[in-house]
Amino acid sequence: MSLWFIAAAVAYFIKGMCGFANTLVFTSILSFGTANSNISPIDLLLGYPANLILTWENRKALEPRVYIPLAALVLAGSIPGALLAAYVGRVTEDSESFKANISAVFIVDNTFRVILYSCLHLLTLQTIKMSLLLIPFALGGLIAGIKCSQKLDDKLVRKCTVILLVISGVSLILKNL
To answer: Which of 51, 139, 176, 177 would disulfide-bridge 103, Cβ 3.0–4.6 Å?
Structure first.
């Protein structure tokens, strides 16, 4: 159980710093002992309030011309996540705008997935209980990440994010060997 607490805090610290990558980090940490079908619904329920908080926190930089078309594409399933972050990074001017717009896209995606997961009975009482138990750790990590990103240089935040994404990727590769 402590691994879940650590995974939630670390994944949402990263999300607070850069606006995304929580799912990759959360899944990478937990995938050594837990099936993805048990991880995804919980990450969805943790990600929903995190995206609401990030969007609200950066609402002045929110641009409908950026997030509305991307949300439509995400719902249609025609754009992979890595291209999404790269595109938002190119069309936004700073990290606040990036976090506001990518989080708004994720809110639309999360809403759709909550409905879908509910219809498919992937959101069980046990999943909801686990999510509620992890919310304080995810929110603590998110708030700490937001505070760190406000004090750190954007370039340093990007470098830290890349390093952590590489570590997560290597972790997934090692798991599958």
So the answer is: 51
